[in-house]
């Protein structure tokens, strides 16, 4: 990307899109085209085609998606598959029609088989059944990867897919019903501490293992890969390190300074037993994450919960 290129960040108000936009600005890019979801409904084909025809962006980061944690994915199954399929199909086809130079599609590590060998290599895609709690979302994301692959193969488009591991950051969704585990636990421990509650409820058994990446590191990786001459069909982005949900709960409890008990609600699903990405392809290309899990959680805790002006209950409610 040259400084004069026009860049479209789809989903620039979400946690991922806003981090990518910030990273691009820090790197000296100034020429952006941006639309909120109120201004442009990416599920609407005619609107998307007209937008691309008018604006003709050079580069596209496709970070717009309907996202959520285990309960949201399991509950809003139709919205998760329909919205994501529509967004991807419209944006990727419009990018092809309008001659976009390079597009990056952001997927998710839940596209891999539920019981994939760990750490998960890119080539394990479509080698086994998916985790049922987020299958509709995963199927939509797999379709996005296959769209990019097919447009590369048939039309020679420079469309690539990246698969981030579980992400967290300051602009996360902190709604307890729809969020992912890390923002949910930060909120639960914080509120239990200030209200003097005797216990915090953690869903599931605490045994599943997850890998977490600070979203500013993800954004850095995305800009790095957009500018890299190598164009892998699919590339994992993560830290290469995982932690159990019980260990995560302990870490967050320590950071927040909560002294009460942790109890496990096993009526809630565990989801995939382990999700750890193999990031050797990314490391071989020369990229490595910067922010440790503890440092990242501290940053989010301070910015979101210790600032008087912050209203985390209304941030980014995804669903
Ligand atoms: P997943 O990675 O797609 O399974 O999504 P989540 O981040 O929502 O959940 C990860 C794991 O954390 C699952 O085993 C959840 O049951 C567990 N978990 C424990 N407490 C919570 C919570 O309060 N909210 C969420 N979303 N997950 C929790």
Topology overview:
Elements: E1 7-10, H1 15-26, E2 32-33, H2 45-55, E3 59-62, H3 70-75, H4 77-97, E4 102-106, H5 135-155, E5 159-164, E6 166-168, H6 181-195, E7 199-203, E8 209-210, E9 212-214, H7 215-226, E10 234-237, E11 243-244, H8 245-256, E12 261-265, E13 274-275, H9 280-285, H10 293-305
Helix pairs in contact: 1-7, 2-4, 4-5, 6-8, 8-10
Guanosine-5'-diphosphate (GDP) binds next to helix 6 and strand 7.
What does this protein structure show overall?
- The protein has 319 residues and is of the alpha/beta class.
- The chain has a domain at 7-172 and 212-240 and 276-290: 3-Layer(aba) Sandwich (Rossmann fold), CATH 3.40.50.720.
- Helices cover 40% and strands 15% of the residues.
- The protein has 10 helices and 13 strands.
- The chain has helices spanning 15-26, 45-55, 70-75, 77-97, 135-155, 181-195, 215-226, 245-256, 280-285, 293-305; strands at residues 7-10, 32-33, 59-62, 102-106, 159-164, 166-168, 199-203, 209-210, 212-214, 234-237, 243-244, 261-265, 274-275.
- The strands form 4 sheets. A 6-stranded parallel beta sheet has the order 2-1-3-4-5-10, with helices on both faces. A 3-stranded mixed beta sheet has the order 11-8-13.
- Helix 1 (15-26) links the parallel strand 1 (7-10) and strand 2.
- Helix 1 (15-26) packs across helix 7, helix 4 runs parallel beside helix 5 and helix 6 (181-195) crosses helix 8.
- The radius of gyration is 19 Å and the shape is globular.
- The protein starts with 6 loop residues before the first strand and ends in a 14-residue tail after the last helix.
- The model has no long low-confidence stretch (mean pLDDT 95).
- The site of guanosine-5'-diphosphate has 21 residues, from helix 6 and strand 7.
- Guanosine-5'-diphosphate binds at residues 69-70, 110, 134, 166, 179-181, 184-185, 202-204, 208, 210, 245, 268-272.
- Belongs to the NAD(P)-dependent epimerase/dehydratase family. Fucose synthase subfamily.
- Catalyzes the two-step NADP-dependent conversion of GDP-4-dehydro-6-deoxy-D-mannose to GDP-fucose, involving an epimerase and a reductase reaction.
- Its EC number is 1.1.1.271.
- The record marks 108, 110 as: Important for catalytic activity.
- InterPro entries: Epimerase_deHydtase (IPR001509), GDP_fucose/colitose_synth (IPR028614), NAD(P)-bd_dom_sf (IPR036291).
């Amino acid at each position: 990307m040259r400084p004069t290129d026009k860049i479209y960040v789809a989903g620039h108000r979400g946690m991922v899109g806003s981090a990518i936009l910030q990273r691009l600005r820090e790197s000296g890019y100034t020429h952006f085209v941006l639309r909120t979801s109120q201004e442009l409904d990416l599920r609407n084909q005619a609107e998307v085609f007209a937008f691309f025809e008018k604006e003709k962006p050079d580069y596209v980061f496709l970070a717009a998606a309907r996202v959520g944690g285990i309960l949201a994915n399991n509950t809003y199954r139709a919205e998760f598959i329909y919205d994501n399929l529509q967004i991807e199909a419209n944006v990727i086809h419009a990018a092809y029609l309008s001659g976009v130079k390079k597009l990056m599609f952001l997927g998710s590590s839940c596209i891999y088989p539920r019981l994939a060998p760990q750490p998960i290599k890119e080539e394990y895609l479509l080698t086994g059944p998916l985790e049922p709690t987020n299958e509709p979302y995963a199927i939509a994301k797999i379709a996005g990867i296959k769209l990019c692959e097919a447009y590369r193969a048939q039309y020679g488009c420079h469309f690539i897919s990246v698969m981030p591991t579980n992400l967290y950051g300051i602009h996360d969704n902190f709604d307890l019903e729809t969020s992912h585990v890390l923002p949910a636990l930060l909120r639960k421990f914080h509120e239990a501490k200030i209200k003097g509650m005797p216990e915090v409820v953690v869903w599931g058994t605490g045994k599943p293992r997850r890998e977490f990446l600070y979203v500013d590191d993800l954004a850095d990786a995305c800009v790095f890969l957009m500018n890299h001459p190598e164009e892998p069909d699919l590339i994992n982005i993560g830290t290469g390190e995982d932690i159990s949900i019980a260990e995560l709960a302990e870490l967050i409890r320590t950071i927040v300074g909560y002294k009460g008990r942790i109890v496990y609600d096993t009526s809630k699903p565990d989801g995939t037993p382990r999700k750890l990405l193999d990031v050797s392809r990314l490391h071989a290309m020369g990229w490595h994450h910067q922010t440790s899990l503890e440092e990242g959680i501290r940053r989010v805790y301070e910015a979101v919960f210790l600032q008087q002006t912050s209203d985390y209950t209304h941030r980014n409610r995804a669903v």
